[in-house]
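Progress against Task 2.4 (sequence-to-structure conversion) is shown through the following example record, which the project officer requested during the mid-term review.
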Amino acid sequence: MIRLKSTHKSKRKRLYPAYYDKIVQGALLLIWEAFNCQCGKLLAPFLRANIDSIILESQFNAGDEVTAKLRKISASTIDRLLKPSKAKMKIKGTSGTRAAAQHMKNLIPMLSHFQCLEQGDGLWQIDLVQHDGGNPSGECGL
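Structure tokens generated for the chain above:
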């Protein structure tokens, strides 16, 4: 008798009820914004140590069930719940530098290391990366 064993397992996703619901996520978002948008690794131990003083604040009006869930939330769960909010805050497309056109590359002489040593003092280089934090108008914001 020949027995065949299937090596392909079912790819069904197990469905669990959400333990941390939208109310917990909203309370966590409020705490996260109040404490300077810290990552989950820093926020989780801080939250466990200070949840008693946080719930006394007037802006934080969550119930006992939400407070109990926030007492035992892990750092990775904090990061997972705050992922959409962090994505909204991410700066995109701030590069002000562009690739040099081919004719510009031909105008700038390229020197090897040995040619630089032969030339002597007075050789300098330019960094063409824009370091402005996403605001090309300058430090004063003109």
